[in-house]
Amino acid sequence: MHELPLVFFTVLGQSAAGLFLLAYISRRMGSIDDKQLKTANIVAFIIMIIGLVIGGLHVGQPLRFFNMLLGVGRSPMSNEAFLSGVFVGCAAATLFFTLFYKQTLLRELANIAAVITGLAFVWSIPQVYNIASIANWNTGYTTLQMWMTMLVGGGALAITIGARGLGITSFLIGTFAIFASRAGYQAFLTETGPALSSEQTGFWGFQVVVLAVALAAFVGMALKQRAPKATLAVCTAAVLLAELSGRIAFYNLWQITM
């Protein structure tokens, strides 16, 4: 699928932004320590870089990425590319002041900047797909699912690094929002693209089932106050796969309105 690089770019980027946000808030709340925050920032940075590298395959030639920046301020796609770069830069600065040039104030400022630019990056993504000529995408459900990936993917990652309270809360909100909106989303797609929508049943079914299982697993582990790191990692990987599946279904809905 030609859009597969974008599937990874958007899902991994949104999840990384979510982890930066939740880990920073958790540290400010005292739920995690500096070591766990450092781990979270490293994991989020790596995930974002992986998403950016895979997403670059969609461009074809690496230098075309810079051409995309020519429309910053007027082109949603250019804004997305620009903000992804700024987010990565702030994330890299956070790690630099954490691991190499250890300056508490600069680290704090860079971390705050990474959180803010991460949110701006997540905001920019649905702007690219709210296109009047593509009825299946031109809906508030597009924006909703992009933000919920940040909460679901970021929440699962946050749980894994130790920010379980805020991570589980984020995951619960995102998962329930996805479940609650699915019927309305399906009804909308039945009107705008019934044939394409019916073809995505397997992808959406996989997403819902995995998220439901992960939800039960995370809540169960929270109640027991104990969870093996390997189990958490497997659950988080499954959650990311579920969101990738849902995003594949979204891109498969591409259809020019006649």
TrEMBL record:
Pfam families: DmsC (PF04976)
Coiled-coil annotated residue ranges, if any: none
GO CC aspect terms: dimethyl sulfoxide reductase complex; plasma membrane
Domain of life of the source: Bacteria
EC numbers on record: 1.8.99.-
Molecular-function GO term, any one: dimethyl sulfoxide reductase activity
Alphabetical GO biological process terms: anaerobic electron transport chain
Keywords assigned: Membrane, Oxidoreductase, Transmembrane, Transmembrane helix
Name by which UniProt lists this protein: Anaerobic dimethyl sulfoxide reductase subunit C
